[in-house]
Amino acid sequence: MNTVIFRTIAPTLAAIMLVFSIFVLLRGHNEPGGGFIGGLIAASAVAIYGIGASVTEVRRAIRLDPLSIAGVGVVLAGASGLVSAFFDVPFMTSQWLAFEFADSEVVLSTPMIFDIGVYLVVFGTISAVALALEEPEQ
Amino acid sequence: MASQTQAPDPGALPAAMIEHATAMADWVVILPVVLCLIGGALLLIMRKSRIGQAGLAILVTIGVIASDIALLMRTLDGPVSMTMGKWLPPFGIAFTADVLSAGFALAAAVATLVVLFYTQAELQLREVRHGFHALVLLMLAGVSGAFLTGDIFNLYVWFEVMLIASFGLMIMGGRKIQLDAAVKYGFLNFLATTFFLVALGYLYGLVGTLNMADIVTAAAVAPKVPMAAIASLMLLAFGMKAAAFPVNAWLPASYHAPDPGVSALFAGLLTKVGAYTLLRILVALMPGTRDWLGPVLVVVATTTLIIAPLGALAQTNLRRALGFFVIGGIGAILAGLAIGTPTGIQGGAIYAFNSMLVMTAFYLVAGLVERVTGEMDTRQMGGLYAVNSPLSIAFLVLVFAAAGLPPSLAFWPKLLLVEGSVASGQYWVLAAVLINSILTSIAGSRLWAHIFWRQGRAGTHSEQPNDRLRPLSPTYRGFAAVPTGALVLAIVLLGLWPNPVFEAGRLAATGLVDPVPYVAATGLAPANDAAQGGAAMASEETPR
Q1: Residue contact A96–B8, C-beta within 8 A
Q2: What radius of gyration do chain A's Cα atoms show?
Q3: What is the rounded CA–CA span in Å between residue B509 and residue B506?
Q4: Residue A98 pairs with which residues in a beta bridge?
Q5: What is the pTM of this model?
Q6: Which of B27, B34, B43 lies closest to A78 in CB terms?
Q7: How far A134 CA lies from chain B's nearest CA (Å)?
Q8: Contact state of B84 with A90 under an 8 Å Cβ cutoff
Q9: What are the backbone angles phi and psi of residue B285, rounded to the nearest 5°?
Q10: Do B82 and A105 count as a contact with CB atoms less than 8 A apart?
Q11: Which of A29, A70, A88 sits opposite B22 (nearest CB)?
Q12: Tens-of-pLDDT digits for all 544 residues of chain B?
């Protein structure tokens, strides 16, 4: 597993996967993809980087504790549902904000925030599990 | 652009969306769960910090209690429902609360609050850093969600949330006995959840809906044999979760393993969710099935009622013995279900409410007893009366409460059960309820005599006092003993003035027996849907 080839390619591969995971996350609402699968891809990137480099290096690179990232995700997802309280509609009713920006239409919505929350939950949880498994036993 | 079709356009989709504005007050039905989830997530983020965690958890729980009280007040006038995302009920996931669910959610939150105070005294920093408070709030989210949801698949999801949080709590501390207990607890609960999921699949295949209010109307015209199969599977699944007799062995084998605070939380909350679900499904959702399963329910209830105190009699480990009292309480709730008349169901519902508070308090008192004596074995306790007499009074009151004797609240639901079983001529249930009270008081007073009355430890000379007793530290007295005492006092006061609980229990039973207001609250038209369900059923039946 720990060959020169793998160790050389792992950082690049992880970077590409992280970018791709965000692409998958953002196309999710209307096309295949979304927060769950995006989070899984991002967590795989972390796992690969963890094998290629070392778990301590990964932890240093992502700075935050993976489980805290998951916590942020739950808060974000819950908060996205609470937005609808200001519009006289039930919990989790989607709210949309569409505007023109540089000749294209940008659409922001609460489902997107919810999906980002899901992304963070999946990313945080699976990374925490993967890193704990990769860590050498004391 | 895709965004054009996605933008909400009330005119374009009249049949699928809720049109009317949602009142701000309706949010109380979802608030207990949302508060717990967000609070739990915040605690997960800050779990490494030394300070502030318990404070935040307690604040969130007080918020949950406030919204539960507001919800209960509203449900007294009729069920409250909110369907997420504005989709009409059979498609959108609804949270629907009536008096039964709101009352149970309130009791669960109160029990959690007391436990949160108690654990301030016994928690170690390591457990706080492993996310104890986050797990407690997530478990409360699961329990409240299970009580308040109006969608049966969503109910499954909340069961999972509750289970996963409880696994974390059970192994908190990492002692060998806890891992052993977690394996038994986890395996049997997963098995029960699987049965539930299988039954859900059948139910969805049969009636084509997962919304509880919609199931009420569709189940009335569904073919009987598959309904009976589904109901039996549900009875098995939730019987396991509630620890009813033939499938109860996991409870005494696991509840004594974690710290007393955690086991109090489990004893108060978890089994009652299973009992609540049985009441909801067999009485309200699939009313015919309760009558078919009647004889089974009578057997299960009577055996549970009688086996439980016998098990407690045979135990020398204090919290293991209490585990059998929890099972006895489940027997009483099932007795209400077995009687099946509104009086019986009222008795069962009030007993479940009472049992949540009593069992939490009982495990907490047991934790204090273990703290003072430094033992888990009742034979080694002895002589506690001389050191801590308030504890002996609290313990005795709780023995009375477990046995259903006055002055505790438990006396009244037992009276209702007796009345209901006499009125419907079910003398086996009557006998079992009475024998359970006698046996439980024998088992409880045996424990009391061993722990408090006897001068010293077993095997020592009778005049030799127990020298291993340590008085409670001020932390324990302030954080653990005072809230526990307050809970015991509340149980006694509710027993002396039972009218509000009685009335709420009557409304809860009426709500279960006559689900028309429940269906109306979700915005479904009963008759119309029944006709549609019937038509769908007929078309499915023709190939046979």
Answers
A1: yes
A2: 17
A3: 5
A4: A107
A5: 0.90
A6: B34
A7: 20
A8: yes
A9: -80, -45
A10: no
A11: A88
A12: 344 444 455 555 445 666 676 777 788 899 999 999 999 999 999 888 878 888 999 999 999 999 999 999 999 988 988 888 878 777 888 899 999 999 999 999 999 999 999 998 888 888 888 889 999 999 999 999 999 999 999 999 999 999 999 999 998 888 888 899 999 999 999 999 999 999 999 999 999 889 898 898 888 888 888 999 999 999 999 999 999 988 888 898 899 889 999 999 999 999 999 999 999 999 988 888 888 888 999 999 999 999 999 999 998 899 999 999 999 999 999 999 999 899 999 999 999 999 999 999 999 999 999 988 888 888 888 778 878 888 999 999 999 999 988 888 899 999 999 999 999 989 999 999 999 999 999 999 999 988 888 877 777 766 677 777 788 888 888 888 899 999 999 999 999 999 999 999 999 999 888 888 888 888 776 544 444 443 343 334 333 3
Q: Which of B4, B44, B129 to mutate to test the interface with A (most CBs of A within 10 A)?
A: B44
End-to-end CA distance of chain A: 21
Cβ burial, residue B52 (10 Å; 0-12/13-18/19+): exposed
CA B421 – CA B347 distance, rounded (Å): 10
* Gap between the Cα atoms of B339 and B346, Å rounded: 10
Chain B contact probe: residue of A65, A69, A74, A125 with most B CBs at under 10 A: A74
The verdict on a CB contact (< 8 Å) between B34 and A81 is yes
Each domain of chain A, given as residue ranges in start order, spans 4-134
ipTM (interface pTM): 0.90
